[in-house]
Design a protein that fits this description.
alpha+beta, two-stranded antiparallel ribbon
Length: 241
Amino acid sequence: MITYDGLHLEDDAILANRDVTSPITLVAAPADESVLREVRKYQTCEIQDVHEHDEYREFLEKALKPLGLYSEDFLPSTTSSCYKVTYRDQAVAIFRLTPVAPDSVFHRTIPGASGRKILQVNNVAVEQTYQGDLLLGIILKNCALLSYTKGFDFVAGLVRYEVLPLFVDFGTLPVRHEPLHLLGDAAICDYVTYFRTDRREHIDYALARSYHYFHRKVTMKSIAADVKRSAPRATDELGGV
């Protein structure tokens, strides 16, 4: 299990009353145990053995091939760290983190990134039935925390324009640049999005954004269920004609 300052990554530091020194942490939604209960159902673990790496590659191929995003070039390198997210012991998502070369596209496009250490997020793949759930937020939060604990200044990724709003909605920073075409399709525009992770207040921001995101997702799901239960029943169910 991955930890951060003695906490599981699934337990937001902003809710533990520890090192809450940055004002940005205070803008998060109020603590709600029902939200934390949902988040804790997801566990993030680093993949270690050969069998798990084989499962990782199978998961990646199954998730990305239908989208036209799969390529052998996307498989982990020896410098990559691979992770899986489980829900009730079932693998529901994967991602990997890879240090990038000093002359990478991230160094050229991210403001202030020249000469800094950058960790790239690759292979974000989510089981279809869990898309649109809490998973994207869990992955992005964990990437920020891992980048910070590993000593990197930025964590960044290349994202297709069509799904870029999902990442920005969570709180990552998009970069305005000439469209890139690096994800295997010359007709698709790719953009860089990132978190700064070189200072504690940047992590406070990521934690605050993540809890606000989780709170919003869980609360809106509950409200939708409440509305469905309280909707007027059909006329025949009320004894009408």
